[in-house]
């Protein structure tokens, strides 16, 4: 074979070898990509609709004013007891009935209630999620073990049944059922069973106290948030969505005739903001919030600026030094305006009471 032919043969062999290497590398890369996609699809948990909205909000800077930070899962979280531990017999029957009264309050006490028609049609569970067992969702972790106790609101020592009565009058905007009756006693039985045996510091109890803003909470900013994140469930006018049969709510009204009145705990911005931060939109948790602290305050300001039933509160907090600084109605034990007590900024008020603490 001539030298020219050998050179051509070598060129062809080198070209073929290089092509084979390139094809092999492409095969390896494609295989790796396909393998990672396959494993990712099988290992990654399915996102909830709330998580999907969160991801979208983080990609779009106009949807959130700051990054929403996920919170780690803690072994210190309060955990409600397993329902399998409810005792048998009459005691267990009362506990189960008490839970049903919490979950389906309107069935028994709503406008068409089987026991008495004395409330606005909301359920206790609308504000105490999952029967009062979800962390930072106004749960009952330390409720029963805290009573009897001195109530700043009334200025006297009260039993747990007194707090239930206040919920009926304020959050349910209704009348008080018989404290000695079967229903109130069943609710107490459930609250005792579900909560901690003694008053302790429990992580995740009640509401989360989120950091004060360095400005007043803004109802106008809150309105934008409400329209984009809340109205699809609670309605453009805060009217909520009635459940089948129109006796209770799938999504409760946030203002208006059938919502909590202006004496309820939810009408305080700190309570409302701490609640929505860890629970709203529906499906959100403390571990995976969707709202920033700032958004939570603004949303609370909008909702609580809307019209609702009024309850006389002139006898509340006889010792004004114990009155919560975000109580939306006077009188107050300071010179700050009512508008600031309702919307903030709250830190100057808190600092005032801290410096004048007896």
UniProtKB/TrEMBL annotation:
EC number: 1.8.2.2
UniProt-listed SUPFAM superfamilies: Cytochrome c
Keyword Oxidoreductase: yes
Origin superkingdom: Bacteria
GO molecular function, one term: electron transfer activity
Span of domain Cytochrome c: 217-307
Pfam families (alphabetical): Cytochrom_C
Record field: transmembrane: 20-39
Gene3D superfamilies: Cytochrome c-like domain
InterPro entries: Cyt_c-like_dom (IPR009056), Cyt_c-like_dom_sf (IPR036909), Cytochrome_c-type_DH (IPR051459)
Enzyme category, top tier: oxidoreductase
Record keyword Metal-binding present: yes
Alphabetically ordered keywords of this record: Heme, Iron, Membrane, Metal-binding, Oxidoreductase, Transmembrane, Transmembrane helix
Descriptive protein name: Thiosulfate dehydrogenase
């Amino acid at each position: 074979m001539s030298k020219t032919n050998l050179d051509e043969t070598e060129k062809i062999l080198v070209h073929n070898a290089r092509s084979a290497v390139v094809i092999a590398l492409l095969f390896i890369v494609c295989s790796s990509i396909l393998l990672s996609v396959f494993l990712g699809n099988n290992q990654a948990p399915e996102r909830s609709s709330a998580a999907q909205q969160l991801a979208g909000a983080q990609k779009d800077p106009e949807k959130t004013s700051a990054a929403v930070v996920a919170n780690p899962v803690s072994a210190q979280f309060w955990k409600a007891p397993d329902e399998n531990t409810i005792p048998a017999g009459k005691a267990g029957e009362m506990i189960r009935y008490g839970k049903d009264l919490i979950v389906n309050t309107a069935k028994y006490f709503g406008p068409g209630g089987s026991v008495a028609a004395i409330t606005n049609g909301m359920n206790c569970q609308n504000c105490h999620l999952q029967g009062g067992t979800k962390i930072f969702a106004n749960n009952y972790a330390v409720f029963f073990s805290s009573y009897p106790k001195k109530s700043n609101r009334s200025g006297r020592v009260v039993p747990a049944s007194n707090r239930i009565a206040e919920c009926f009058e304020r959050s349910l905007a209704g009348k008080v059922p018989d404290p000695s009756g079967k229903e109130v006693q069943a609710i107490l039985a459930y609250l005792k069973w579900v909560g901690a045996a003694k008053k302790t510091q429990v992580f995740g109890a009640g509401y989360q106290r989120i950091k004060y803003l360095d400005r007043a909470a803004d109802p106008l900013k809150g309105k934008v948030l409400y329209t984009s994140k809340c109205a699809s469930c609670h309605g453009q006018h805060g009217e909520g969505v009635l459940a089948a049969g129109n006796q209770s709510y799938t999504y409760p009204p946030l203002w208006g005739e059938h919502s909590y009145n202006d004496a309820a705990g939810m009408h305080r911005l700190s309570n409302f903001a701490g609640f929505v931060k860890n629970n709203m939109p529906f499906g959100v948790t403390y571990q995976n919030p969707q709202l920033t602290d700032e958004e939570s305050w603004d949303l609370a300001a909008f909702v609580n600026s809307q019209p609702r039933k009024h309850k006389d509160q002139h006898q509340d907090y006889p010792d004004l030094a114990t009155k919560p600084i975000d109580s939306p109605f006077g009188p107050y034990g300071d010179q700050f305006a009512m508008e600031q007590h309702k919307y903030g900024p709250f830190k100057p008020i808190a600092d005032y009471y801290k410096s004048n603490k007896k």
